[in-house]
């Protein structure tokens, strides 16, 4: 595979999806169809159907291990149908969440074990990890306040309404993952104004994937 796989991670309310939506337009102008932007769970028909089940606020009785397995199943389909073909076509792949989310949310947040969830996803992904992960760092309380104040009520999902204690465990999980993968993680201060976060994100991607932007700089 010749492409480059970069993921966006962060706790709820960090603003990574909003940032991604903004950088899409910039990068599409710069590299056109050499860019693929996708998300998890989702990214294709089957994975999006699984996403609906996972995030439906009506599914409060969902077992935690069932939830973790559904994420892994959606990820597997996303990988083989969407991500791998794009990488084989030498595309720059930007993905909103990937394995680290499952390890942090289900492994640490749900307390079913970070190592167990990591192993489950090793099977689902055949050990494929991103080239780099951009982590949008924000205190738990700040992120949850953003959701309460700004997010469309119709878009608040089953994980958004979890307890503060759950979200603190997720954040702790992310910190462990980041520390263990310091060579892969690049952190951005997500408490900055969104324009500053967008600027930092674009700058980082230009630096870690310069081969996609060489023609632009000529």
Name the descriptors.
single chain; 218 residues; alpha/beta; Rossmann fold; five-stranded parallel β-sheet; 9 helices; 12% strand
Walkthrough of the structure:
The radius of gyration is 17 Å and the shape is globular. The chain has 218 residues and is an alpha/beta fold. It contains 9 helices and 5 strands. The protein has helices at residues 16-31, 45-55, 64-88, 99-109, 114-125, 140-150, 164-180, 194-208, 214-217, and strands at 4-9, 35-39, 92-96, 132-137, 185-189. The model has no long low-confidence stretch (mean pLDDT 93). It has a 5-stranded parallel β-sheet, with helices on both faces. It has a single domain, classed as Rossmann fold (3-Layer(aba) Sandwich), CATH 3.40.50.300.
TL;DR?
With 218 residues, the protein is an alpha/beta fold. The chain is 56% helix and 12% strand.
Strand and helix map with partners:
Blueprint: E1 4-9, H1 16-31, E2 35-39, H2 45-55, H3 64-88, E3 92-96, H4 99-109, H5 114-125, E4 132-137, H6 140-150, H7 164-180, E5 185-189, H8 194-208, H9 214-217
Parallel strand pairs: 1-3, 1-4, 2-3, 4-5
Function: Phosphorylation of dTMP to form dTDP in both de novo and salvage pathways of dTTP synthesis.
Enzyme class: transferase
GO biological process, one term: dTTP biosynthetic process
């Amino acid at each position: 595979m010749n492409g480059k796989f970069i993921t966006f991670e962060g706790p709820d309310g960090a603003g990574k999806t909003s940032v991604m939506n903004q950088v899409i337009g910039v990068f599409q102008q710069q590299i056109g169809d050499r860019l693929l932007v996708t998300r998890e769970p989702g990214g294709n028909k089957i994975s999006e159907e699984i996403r609906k089940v996972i995030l439906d606020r009506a599914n409060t009785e969902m077992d935690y291990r069932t939830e973790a397995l559904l994420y892994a199943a959606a990820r597997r389909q996303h990988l083989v149908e969407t991500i791998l073909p794009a990488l084989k076509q030498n595309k720059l792949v930007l993905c909103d969440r990937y394995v680290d989310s499952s390890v942090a949310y289900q492994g640490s947040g749900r307390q079913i074990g970070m190592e167990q969830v990591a192993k489950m996803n090793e099977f689902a992904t055949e050990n494929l990890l991103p080239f780099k992960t951009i982590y949008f760092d924000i205190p738990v309380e700040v992120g949850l306040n953003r959701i309460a104040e700004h997010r469309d009520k119709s878009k608040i999902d089953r994980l958004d309404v979890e307890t503060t204690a759950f979200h603190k465990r997720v954040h702790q999980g992310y910190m462990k993952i980041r520390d263990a993968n310091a060579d892969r993680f690049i952190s951005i201060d997500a408490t900055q104004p969104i324009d500053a976060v967008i600027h930092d994100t674009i700058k980082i991607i230009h630096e870690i994937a310069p081969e996609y932007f060489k023609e632009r700089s000529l």
